[in-house]
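Cross-check.
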Amino acid sequence: MWQTYYTPQSLEEALQLLAEYEHDARLIAGGTDIVVEYDRGVRPEKVLIDISRLPDLDQITQDEHHHIHLGPLVTHNQVVRSPLCMDRAFPLAKACWEVGAPQIRNRGTVAGNLVTASPANDTISPLWALGASVTLQSVHGTRTLPFKEFFLGVRKTALQPNEMVVDISFPAMTSYQVGTFLKLGLRRFQAISVVNVAVVLSMFGDTVTEAKIALGSVSPTIVRAEDAERFLAGKVLTKDVLIHAGELAAQTVAPISDVRGSAEYRRYMVSTLTQHALEALAEGTETDTMPPRPVMLWGHTDGHFVNYLNQSPRVTHTEAGDEPIECYINGHPHTFRGGNSKTLLRLLRENADLTGTKEGCAEGECGACTVILDGIAVMSCMVPAPRAHHSQVVTIEGLAQDDDLHPVQEAFIDEGAVQCGYCTPGFIMSGVSLLDECPHPTLDEIKQAITGNLCRCTGYYKILQALELAAKRQQQNEQ
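Predicted model, tokenized:
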């Protein structure tokens, strides 16, 4: 794992640290990729620089030139909940909704998705189709690169060791443009793309005047289907046009075969997904698969983590533990000396003796480790322990008040929503966060809330019934 963990208090401090350590350091914001890589022993850097608390970098804005700007700390869920992105950058919002689960989208950032540079990462394709660029900054200045210059190959970018992404910008879609994003995964949620496609069309009535089609997970970097784009210009989206455009898109790619799909299957699905995306745009149904009120698991918050540090200069946590981690867990103050190179999950279990939070996969797949960090549901296996410094954490042990269980806990007992019980704490924490955010959820919203929680005993029906019962009782208590 890492040996030194810096929490700078300004962008300038972060850039100075990057300049000092360069190849020996790595930035961390959401940590949904990098913590897993450390846990697997594949990251050599000994220094982590946590930029997640830098002020004002989690904003989504539009400038006077009608360009949308995403700060480097904007999370996937913040994009989904943004009216500006839903209205003027729908392909990106749709892609962000397809990323992982609510707990992952609450921590994972769009900038981090770009820097990881996997061709299967869902946000790259729509941003490419939208004409995005990234601004990079170091102590020596800034530079802005279009995507075709930023992405150099599989997990390779033009980002230098002393630079960080400080802005992602792209033209807002106009009233005469439509767009969407489609993805094929091997399961409905928490799936890596086998193929994804983003389409943005400029229209004059029923006629396409310009088309942009970006294909993901089929090449070392995202591919533009330029032959299909040229073919669509001047066309009405008839069935024959859709089919031929899909065929031309498939001819663009030379995909590999891997455990998720053969090259032939990927090529076929490029054609199919391109046709489906164009058909949805022709029929105006592209937003039908987005829920009207997406569940965030933000509890009572607005989805922005509060910075409780209020310290200057930077905070430094080392493996030796000379700087303690001080935080509130379940309303009580805790000080930990040691554990600075652990995840929050292992700090809770091994240092705080709070073993209710379970370790199932240690890579954000099962949700058994779900806790509430500063009011927002996260997977604690993907949060570095020093990130909890001067934060408030709620675990399963903190839900009951004196001898009274939380209504969600009571409902799980009454409905028998437990089999082996290992996953239960994570489901309960997601349910509690849901009811704080959405006191009167529909069944579909309940299902959304637990998409990041896996029950290996297949006990979902009872779990759904328990959460419905808890919501019903909460409504009755309000009357």
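The chain has a mean pLDDT of 95. The two ends are 51 Å apart (CA to CA). Passed to J.P. for a second look.
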